[in-house]
Amino acid sequence: IPPGVYQMSVSEAAVPGEEVGRVKAKDPDIGENGLVAYSIIDGDGMDMFEITTDYETQEGVVKLKKLLDFETKKSYSLKVEAANVHIDPKFISNGPFKDTVTVKISVEDADEPPVFLKPSYIFEVQENAASGTVVGKVHAKDPDAANSAIRYSIDRHSDLERYFTINAEDGNIKTMKALDREEIAWHNISVFAVEVHKQHQEAKVPVAIKVVDVNDNAPKFAAAYEAFVCENARSNQQFITISADDRDDSANGPRFIFSLPPEIIHNPNFTLRDNRDNTASVLVRREGFSRQKQDLYLLPIVISDGGLPPMSSTNTLTIRVCGCDSNGSMVSCNAEAYMLNAGLSTGALVAILACIVILLVIVVLFVTLKRQKKEPLIVFEEEDVRENIITYDDEGGGEEDTEAFDIATLQNPDGINGFIPRKDIKPEYQYMPRPGLRPAPNSVDVDDFINTRIQEADNDPTAPPYDSIQIYGYEGRGSVAGSLSSLESATTDSDLDYDYLQNWGPRFKKLADLYGSKDTFDDDS
């Protein structure tokens, strides 16, 4: 190795395994005789650094072994040895085949984030504590030589309900509202620490806050109890066992104490026995109950816990009186069992209901039939004649029906230019009926009334049907076949020869005269 001292430097922020520097020993041999191995044999940095051999370049690579801290130690010294891997025994007397060199490594200061004094914090606070109660304090410092001031804050993602706040300067954590252990027993939040002048340098620490239980919940029935007692129950007979539940911690819960309120402790019906195992038994104090007199009892029971101070509550136990057989097995707890005996039987009630239903059906049918009756079409009252017009569906309009289709489609379109065919037009003048033909107002002679109406209709020119003239002479135009009518056939100029009709006999003589040759026609004329 060339004489002298190797100087190297490394940042305190470097991670283990990172390369610090290289050293190289010169060996004029070649091949395996020139291979060199490096090792650290002394120095105060033997625990912090290590050296490996790069066989491609025959160099020794110094690497970081542990994390560094500039504020703790700023430099290290290593003694590195380089030795041949293979030594020929013939030349072993020429040794030694190794050399050493000193490597000095200086640690450079790096801008580090704040560091909390603890990796995590655990605090306790009593439930129902007033807002502003101090929970605990976290502390962080700047490891750099500058020792910058630190500011604290709570990660709001870890405290969405905002139960806590922190003093930004001293790190004191306080409550912002009362805490309930029965809702949340532990709160886990995160606290940030940042340097005042370097906001990008921050640290984060978890903080667990335990809510200490306070005896603020009274014990209650463990379930919604409903008891049943037989009418023929014996004295001191147990018929139900009850237990309690407390939302508070076990330190403020059991053991539970069961008792009756002082005002009913000597009630004649039931008594209570505390089993001293957080349960109690309810017993019958007297013999015999009657559902006819009372079928339901409400028994108040006081339950106290063992907390400091103790909490208690009054719970009501519902007790029903039931009918039982001789073995004590429950048969019925419904009140109708004795109500029916005192009144009507089930069959009688069913019969009464059936009769009521039948009467209702009869009334509904009567009302329906009455509504379906039709009123007379003509009502004859003394000295009162009314006209009643009944409309029936007819099967056709006859001559008066001019709305089924427009007859004008058969008329000559030439009339559009000047001649407009006549339509059914109601006369413009109004016919005044003759006053002498109207029957007397109080007349009851229907025959005279009808005859009078017929005469008025016959003499009224404004009443339908109206006179109209329709022309059906147009047969159409534009046909290549010509007219099919025999009228005016003799006067038309035609190239056809009808002389052969003369030879068809007397039956076709009339046609032969009509369609004979033109010359024959002219001669006859």
Automatic annotation (TrEMBL):
Q: Which GO terms describe its cellular component?
A: adherens junction; catenin complex
UniProt record, GO biological process? adherens junction organization; calcium-dependent cell-cell adhesion via plasma membrane cell adhesion molecules; cell migration; cell morphogenesis; cell-cell adhesion mediated by cadherin; cell-cell junction assembly; homophilic cell adhesion via plasma membrane adhesion molecules
Q: Does the keyword Calcium apply?
A: yes
Q: Name one GO molecular function term.
A: calcium ion binding
Q: What does this protein do?
A: Cadherins are calcium-dependent cell adhesion proteins.
**Signal peptide residues on this chain, from the entry's feature table:** none
Q: Where are the transmembrane segments?
A: 348-369
UniProt keyword annotations, A-Z? Calcium, Cell adhesion, Cell membrane, Cleavage on pair of basic residues, Glycoprotein, Membrane, Metal-binding, Repeat, Signal, Transmembrane, Transmembrane helix
State the InterPro entries in the record. Cadherin (IPR039808), Cadherin-like_dom (IPR002126), Cadherin-like_sf (IPR015919), Cadherin_CS (IPR020894), Cadherin_Y-type_LIR (IPR000233), Catenin-bd_sf (IPR027397)
Domain Cadherin per the UniProt entry, residue ranges: 2-116, 117-221, 221-338
Q: How does it sit in the membrane?
A: Single-pass type I membrane protein
In its keyword annotation, does this UniProt entry include Ribonucleoprotein? no
Protein source organism:
Zapornia atra (Henderson crake)
Instruction: List the subcellular locations.
Output: Cell membrane
Protein name (record):
CAD11 protein
